[in-house]
Amino acid sequence: MVALRTFTLSRPRTGSRGAAGFTLIELMIVMSLIVVLAGITISVNANGQTRAREAVLKEDLFRMRDAIDQYYADKDTYPPTLEDLVSAKYLRVVPNDPFTNSSETWQTTLSEIDPANPSATPGVFDVKSGSERTALDGTPYANW
């Protein structure tokens, strides 16, 4: 019969220390690296969310202004309100402003009174964001 031998690998102990492990300095270096990386990740994520909201705002403004132009081209007058664009089926809904989370905060610019027809009521000529915040490029959203 053959006898089986088992071998154990053991690490030799050095000096008067007990079991091998990490020193306090090594742990503190690793923890500080984790904190730095987490801080970078949080700031990049916050800017990414703001950039996404800015892209949505630009798209919404483009679509609403395009609908206003189409309404004017078809009816030769500007819409009295943004809701009239919806009722005339130029928009499905008035979108929410991504920075105020409301469709009621859009700031509208009324058209000038036509000198040829002074009795005509002015309509919505332009639309802007109702947010008081400033964009990443330094311009107020209300000026877009």
Task: Outline the structure in words.
The chain has 144 residues and is mainly alpha-helical. It has a domain at 44-143. Helices cover 40% and strands 6% of the residues. It is built from 2 helices and 2 strands, in the order ααββ. Strands 1-2 form a two-stranded antiparallel sheet. The longest helix is centred in the middle third of the chain and has 52 residues, at 24-75. It is elongated. The termini are far apart. The model has no long low-confidence stretch (mean pLDDT 88).
In which order are the strands of the major sheet placed? 1-2
Structural class: mainly alpha
Shape: elongated
Radius of gyration computed on alpha carbons? 32 Å
Averaging pLDDT over every residue, what do you get? 88
Helix content: 40-55%
According to DSSP, the number of beta strands is 2
| Unreliable sequence segments | none
Distance between the termini: 90 Å
What order do the SSEs take from the amino end to the carboxyl end, as H and E? HHEE
What percent of residues are in strands?
A: 5-15%
Q: Specify the biggest β-sheet.
A: 2 strands, antiparallel
| Number of helices in the DSSP assignment | 2
Question: Top keywords for this entry?
Answer:
mainly alpha, 144 residues, two-stranded antiparallel sheet, 2 strands
